[in-house]
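Running this now, will post back.
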Amino acid sequence: MIDKIYIERNRTDKNNREYITVDNDKNNVRIYTLKNGLQIFLSQNYDAPRIQTFIPVKTGSNNDPSDNTGLAHYLEHMMFKGTSRLGTQNWEQEKVLLNEISELYEKHKAEQNSDKKKEIYQEIDRLSQEASKYAIANEYDKAISSLGATGTNAHTWFDETVYKNNIPKNELEKWLKIEKERFSEMVLRLFHTELESVYEEFNRAQDNDSRLVNYELMDALFPTHPNGQQTTLGNPEHLKNPSMKAIHKYFDEYYVPNNFALVLVGDLDFEETVELIEKYFGTIPYRELPQKNKITEKPITEVVVRTVKSPTTPRVQLAWRTDSYGTKEAMIADITANILSNRGEAGLLDLNINQTQKMLWAQAYSLGLKEYGYFSVVAVPKENQTLDEAKDMILDQIDVVKKGDFPDWMLPAIINDFKIQRQKALETAEGLATNLYDTYIKGRTWAEELSEMDVYASFTKDDIVEFANSFFKENYVVVNKEKGINDKLLRVENPGITPIQINREAQSEFLTDILNEKTEDILPEFVDYQKEISTDVIKNKKISYVKNKYNDIAQVHFIFPMGSDNDRELGISTQIIQYLGTEKFSPEDLKKEFFKIGITNDFKTASDQLTISLSGLESNIEKGIELLLHWLSDVKPEQEIYNQFVETLLENREAVKKDKSRIMTALTTYTKLGKTSRFLDIISENELKNAQIEDFTNRMKQLFRFPYQVFYYGKDWENFKNYIFRYIQPETCKVAEAKIYPEPETSGNVYFTDYDMVQMEMSKVGRGKLVNPENFGKINVFNEYFGRGLSSIVFQEIRESKSLAYSAYVSYAPNSELHHHDYISTYIGTQPDKLQIAVDTMSDLMNELPEVPVQFENAKKSALKQIASTRITRTNLFFNTLRLKKLGITHDFRKDIFQQISDLTFDDLRDFYNQEIKSIQYNTAIIGKKENLDAEAAHQMGTFSELNLEEIFGY
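Update: finished.
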């Protein structure tokens, strides 16, 4: 029997408004419900004068009409297009044209003759041109960015569509005005260009084989339920034949106040906030929701096998259907997944498969949805293993669970880890707000959510074994992801959209009012690092400390001023040690010991720094340090394990060369730095095979005799100082001089790598001048104004006007270290037949910096508001000082950037562009299917070379 300590209480605030709280809720969440059914979740967090906002709507792809799949996701996109007051210059004239376009889409959907469909689409395109004369692109984004909002985005999933913003606290009322406006009505302006962007998103998904495997998995697990029958992006035929009327109907049915919530966590006043929400959202009328028939899946009674082919490394995925999130079955499935795979890498798959290198990799997880869920295991076999052999190894480990052959300490250790992760998540405004909206979407109470850890803790080992024996039968799905050609890829013809007008300098009355409405400024607060960070010297080691004001979790970081540039074998050394034990502990036992005490360890090797970190309950940190130092100083060299490691490493290298995103990263790095980059300076197969394990373990044994500093984040600084001296060894080793890697000029080279995919991806990289912190303010505004924001020039022109790509940007990246070069990069991912137009458009944009005064002022004010309302907290206080040191800066440089931006004029930005960017020459990286490449156009971009995988990876 579980003691009920989380009990709901009805309370009344000082305005006599009723709300609910939960006893023993450390977050002091208040839940209000307005008369129209709108639920409001509020909690206070004073980390910064900002508020994390989510508007979760209880609808997603599972509610799509069966003949209009993808509708919920497309509607999410259209929610950024404005209303009859926002995003228009003349609604009365625009409305007439939008109605005509809507009727044409109905004809287009009904028409079966392909030639007639094209004729109708041409008329849609013509009328869309006319309608765009009255539209103002991205006005929602301009309005929201004028507040200093960050993280503006949305997502659609099975049963949810969630709208996201993080806003300064003084802009709360303006935010409510804007959001009330867009949740009050839907206007489907700039529809056909956005539809094409959604299709580009669909194309990107086709090039992501994780999605393709998941589609097959869900289809087999849920043969009748929308979980498996309606993907979020939708059926391509439905995307090509949309209905504006169906979207309006969906909005009217599901975007009602009794079906969405407002979640706000941050620096807010409870009573003032709820009264403001009532003022704006309380006027939206309640509406009954559509009746929905519950779909019940029949039990799976046999093994269902599916196959997916793509160029990537083969893998196998098994899955069993579970009950819904929050049910006993779903919770025990979650625990069982962690018995197999957990964060401490002490699960059965972690130890018996990954640690012993019997496969390249295997992992279990459990996912609970609003209706049903699933338990799954993914495994990547070695080259000499079949997918069936990998499947059998998974089933063998599941049999271990069925027999109860896992240690008694594991269950409480897993529950302890759950609690630590919950603590970490709920201490931040975003983490708590995410948990609140997820609770709302799944139809659970906040009391149920808070009680979850106690319910987990109530399950016994007998419960797990009983579950495993009744649950794991011949009732699962297998998806074999084989290496091969995906013959299901859809290659879509460019519909030939005429670029629409975006009216950059126009402004609606609604936006004008938002911009003219004055709010009291939040004053920026800049950090005195010497005051915030305590330091001491113990046995010649600098020890730094920042107080954890939030919970009992501590971190200790050992920071060595050396990395792979000083020792190219350092990274391999920190990897191989993960597979080695000591005379006292086997490798598997070491993992168990760390997991038992709830301490995680992490080794990060950068080019100039090695950081070893421990994290967990403060009371166990000393045990973690003792165990870490025992491990490193007494590590047992085992040549056989090393030889296995080398084989696994080499196979992983081959797997990376089959992954599109990793290939694009390698190609872009080659494009930027050429043949002499550190990326290509790797330890060769021959060197690895001829090395002895002692070459690497001796390095680890001596590690703590090198110079390093210690950073401690916790509550008890004095206690830490009282014990850390015992673990500091005399400094007897010197750091080797770092190898210098050149940063060659980019001089008009074009590099192409062939890969079987739907889209083409292109990135241009140009080397700028040496980093100059005096330019950081200009760079900040340039990126927001021109290249990266949702209302940036590039986004408007390439996506909104011409619908050439789902993703396109220009980004100026200042170097993180003095005496090194800045780089500017551009990116476009699009259909092959659109690439040349997109490239030309990007080139035209970058010839001269477009001048749009309103947009410039908006970008500038947004940047200032973001700095003014941001606070540096927690471990960032310390790690920021390390970053600034590389730039020769010892104070909070945001103060200088704030002043730079305050003084910035458009003439200054134009001068910066002309002096720092305009003359830059670029190298170009292109990845795609060779037969789709316009070779003549590629050669016109510069000196063309086709590179193979060995050239760009260095092996």
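Residues 91-110 form the longest helix (20 residues). More later if anyone needs it.
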